[in-house]
Amino acid sequence: MARLRDFGVNPGRLPTGPDNAITDVPGVKVGHTTLISGSGKLVEGEGPVRTGVTAVVPHGGNIFREKVAAAVHSINGFGKVMGFEQIRERGTLETPVVLTSNLSVARAGDALLTYMLRQNPDVALTTGTVNCVIGECNDAVLNDARGHHIQPEHVRHAIDSASDGPVEEGNVGAGTGTTCYQFKGGIGTASREVMDSAFTVGALVQTNHGKREELMVMGVPVGMALHEDYLPQTSPGSIMIVLATDAPFAPHQLERLAKRAVFGLARTGAIASDQSGDFVIAFSTSNRQLHYPDEVIQTMPRFADDGRSIDEFFLAVVECVEEAILNSLLAAQTMTGRDNRTVYALPHDRLRDLLRQYGRL
């Protein structure tokens, strides 16, 4: 599995965490379920199947009982995400974030709901309901997207198998069948340490966006140089961006972080096209909010709205998102899916030549 830094470049000014992944934020875990089966002509309900589920788990406890501060931002709203309105209203996340295929949002949501109900037998009996959060990208270029292949056990496995440490990238989980700038895309991640390594910011993306000519790698017009090469019959899609930090941010501050994700996206050339669903979910693992608080009035640390300090977090978000997107491209491998459609991986040798030509190596 290749990553951007394997090319000998240093994309950004801030240092990375140990694994350069969202899991560098203490407590955050990531798990995947990858579904690949069948080949040849599409037979609805049978395949070929090129899809999956990715789960981002904010901490190892009961997330419903120990909610985390959160915010969401819609860069372009052509999508089918679930659970955003309650986050906007209450400023908390109370389930894992589950990413999957566009037409599987309802099935994944029902599976996550079942998971949360089993974990919390008081829900809808002696307390309120639970807000399940699902994100998506359309993987129909390669996948039998109408086939209802995502099952409850796939969502459960992604959550239960979630771990810290290095994160598998490319053609895995929710990124199994997705494309990016008309190359093969998928899952990518990156992290940055801020304030002399006092805090960490991490990003995980599910890439499925962009036209070929838009692609930029560290300012190099890679897409224009490879405009006619390895070009499949695909159209721009979407991107899901998940941000995490251990800094004690309030929801309004997390919303400010989420809004900066668009600058990292733009650095790779994206324009958030008309039918692109581009969404950001940001959460902080600090200052958990108890579902059953001991006291009505609570005292907890909060990050000051200090311009110089928070600017460093904004930079961390931009650098994380940019590098995570490029990692998703470089980790992905050529894949053939339904009706023998092939989406090619970004050719590493050509990229290396272009980076050298433009003085990046």
Tell me what you see in this structure.
The chain is of the alpha+beta class and 361 residues long. The chain has one domain: L-amino peptidase D-ALA esterase/amidase (4-Layer Sandwich), CATH 3.60.70. Helices cover 24% and strands 24% of the residues. The chain is built from 7 helices and 15 strands. Strands 3, 4, 9, 10, 11, 12 and 13 form a 7-stranded mixed β-sheet that branches. Helix 2 links the parallel strand 5 and strand 6. Helix 2 packs across helix 3. The chain is globular, with a radius of gyration of 20 Å. The two termini are 20 Å apart. 54% of the residues are buried. The model has no long low-confidence stretch (mean pLDDT 95).
Summarize the structure.
The chain has seven helices and 15 strands. It has 361 residues and is α+β, with helices and mostly antiparallel strands. The radius of gyration is 20 Å and the shape is globular.
